[in-house]
Amino acid sequence: MANPLRTFASLYSTTLLMVLAAGLLTTYLGLKLSAMQVPQLWIGAMMSAYYAGLVAGSKLGHQLIARVGHIRAFVASAGVVTASALGHALVDDLTVWIVLRLLVGIGMMCQYMVLESWLNEQADNSQRGTVFASYMIVSYLALILGQGAISLYPDLGLEPLLLIAICFALCIVPIAITRRIHPAPLVPAPLQVTYYFKKAPQALTTVTIGSMIVGSFYGLAPAYASNLGLEPTQVASFMTATIVAGLLAQWPMGKLSDRMSRSRLLRINSLLLGVLTLGIAVTPYQPTVALVMTFLFGILGFTLYPLATALANSRVEQNERVGLSATILLTFGLGACIGPLIASTLMQWFGNSMLYGFMSACTLVLFAGLNYINSKQKVEVPRKEDYLMATGDLVSSPLAAALDPRLDIESVHEQMSPAAVADSSPDDNDNESDDVDDSDDDIMGKSTLEQSFVGEQDFITEPEAAVPTDKQSTTKA
């Protein structure tokens, strides 16, 4: 297979433009609302609406793509997102702005699902990990560019909204003229929240609380920095330093998670993050110190989610990972909805510094909860290849699990087929034996590692044609 960057240049270009516009819109709205001296609660509600839209879009996106196809669904969603972004320039009513943010979230999740399903079907199994990593790097780069673009328009006029609309509109072009094969229709992944919480309580608890922290940061950090008296260019530097730190931390944190218990690493991470955010909350603002602290925040805060996802994936079978990804998406989205609402309320009642005070309380509660759960758990066998880089923001769909190079492609077909959803009834009696998290370092057996790379076929054909009937029966047996 050719270089993924060349093979999927059109899809990566679309991702770059789309995420750039989304990051710029989030920062612009935070700064604009702060400049309008809007109560902090409204800012939190505005950002929560976006994450609520992402969660709702995961269901609506499947239905839309199945009905009209990938390209038409992407174009329709891009049109809605573009119009919603421009709607902020036409109406000053905050209630309307919340609805517009909800629509942006719904449309963008549909776009993410189109991109990821396309990448998944066209990616060769031998380069699936490279394709996914490249996708996440492009997303990180787009977030960084989106934060930096706000410094071009310090007056916060209509120009940023016009640039956002231009990027959302142009992201249609690469995917519309691509010569790649059209992907097959989608089927919703099964959602079994209770089952997965029992199998991986530490991981999903971390996702829940970690999403409250990340959602609060993305939604309220621009307003927090603006309230400190920073200019838009300084706010852009503040946000960019945090996101760059998150990007740089992914690889070393992944290597570290292969060498020590992920459960222990999560506890250490949450404790350090709690102390750091408390320090940010009580320390008077100094430009250099603030940049250093927010850089450290990016290292610790943006690695909670991938660590938790890796831990969760090590606790389930390969054919359960698509359902697990859907559960993580829902959990992250709900947490990211709740976090900004609570943080903005505290900021309105007790002052600007309560943004990081709330984050500190979250991480200390997380640390205590992880310690309690770990004391009730048995020792697990850690697996090395479970860590995959993530942006910390919700920039992927449940289909991201299918890009995982360890995942058996046939199991994805089974997991996302209607029959599998109807027949899936996990036995809760077996949960206790499986419900374990990291305490000691072990090395995954060779047979388990070999099973992780089973299945060399792509999704180019329909599931029924790709997997013969006799092979299905043998697999199930």
Describe the fold and architecture.
- This protein has helices at 4-7, 9-35, 40-68, 70-90, 94-122, 128-149, 159-170, 172-176, 193-199, 201-227, 232-259, 262-282, 287-301, 304-313, 321-350, 354-375, 409-416, 418-423, 431-434, 446-451, 463-466, 469-476.
- The chain has 477 residues and is mainly alpha-helical.
- Residues 424-477 have low confidence and may be disordered.
Q: Count every beta strand, where a strand is a DSSP E run of 2 or more residues.
A: 0
Q: How far apart are the termini? A: 33 Å
Shape descriptor reads globular
Estimated radius of gyration: 22 Å
How many strands, which pairing sense, and closed or not: the largest β-sheet? none
Structural class by sheet pairing and helices: mainly alpha
Strand content: under 5%
List keywords for this structure.
mainly alpha; disordered C terminus; 477 residues; 0% strand; globular
Helix-strand layout with pairing:
Blueprint: H1 4-7, H2 9-35, H3 40-68, H4 70-90, H5 94-122, H6 128-149, H7 159-170, H8 172-176, H9 193-199, H10 201-227, H11 232-259, H12 262-282, H13 287-301, H14 304-313, H15 321-350, H16 354-375, H17 409-416, H18 418-423, H19 431-434, H20 446-451, H21 463-466, H22 469-476
Helix pairs in contact: 2-3, 2-5, 2-6, 2-7, 2-10, 3-4, 3-5, 3-10, 3-15, 4-5, 4-7, 6-11, 9-10, 10-11, 10-14, 10-15, 10-16, 11-13, 12-13, 12-14, 12-16, 15-16
Produce a short descriptive summary.
Helices cover 72% and strands 0% of the residues. With 477 residues, the protein is an all-alpha fold.
